[in-house]
Specification:
By secondary structure, the chain is mostly beta strands. Helix content is about 0%, strand content about 55%. It has a five-stranded mixed beta sheet, with no helix packed on it. It has a three-stranded antiparallel beta sheet with strand order 1-5-8, with no helix packed on it. The protein has a two-stranded antiparallel sheet with strand order 2-3. It has strands at about 10-15, 20, 25-30, 35-40, 45-55, 60-70, 75-85, 100-110, 115-120, 130-140. The radius of gyration is 19 Å and the shape is globular. It contains no helices and ten strands. It has one domain: Sandwich (Immunoglobulin-like).
């Protein structure tokens, strides 16, 4: 059993084409996949970026093992992430101090339709946690959805 210090809980994966960090520390997500990934042909080389949003459970250093498995491919992307789960403001609770782990330029070879599976586990533990599953389909990406906005009467005149 690994040391219990430095445990973090994955909350969400954001999967997109690229992530850029501004000098102010803000992340800019470009080309976010909110539903299916639609590719024009198969096989397809899909460059990916991900942000793993986590909540510190226990303070200290944590090591996570992450895998991204594309559909129909014997290869996958795997990485060990060493994270320092330190509170920036110890007077606040841990839930208000979420961590963002960003990885970009991940080469993903999509061989067939199916699911991209993203999973993580703490190094030293056997239990994997499925964090996200994204369906990959061949076709033409849909255009933007434009909602219909009904005018609202205003008392500002």
């Amino acid at each position: 059993m690994p040391d219990e210090a430095g445990r973090i809980k994955p909350l969400a994966f954001v999967v997109c084409d690229d992530i850029r960090r501004e000098i102010t520390g803000k992340d800019i997500y470009i080309g976010v996949y909110t539903a299916d990934v639609v590719v024009p042909q198969l096989p397809f080389d899909l460059p990916m970026a991900i942000a793993l949003l986590c909540e510190p459970i226990q303070i200290g250093k944590a090591s996570l093992y992450m895998e991204i498995i594309p559909p129909g491919s014997p290869g996958h992307f795997a990485v060990t992430l060493d994270v320092d789960a330190t509170l920036t403001n110890p007077s606040e609770d841990t839930a208000s101090q979420n961590l963002s782990i960003v990885l970009g330029g991940i080469p993903m070879k999509i061989a067939q339709e199916g699911d991209i599976v993203l999973k993580v586990r703490h190094v030293g533990l056997e239990k994997w946690e499925l964090v996200r599953r994204i369906s990959v389909k061949r076709g033409i990406p849909p255009g933007p959805q434009v909602p219909t906005v009904a005018p609202i009467a205003s008392s500002l005149a």
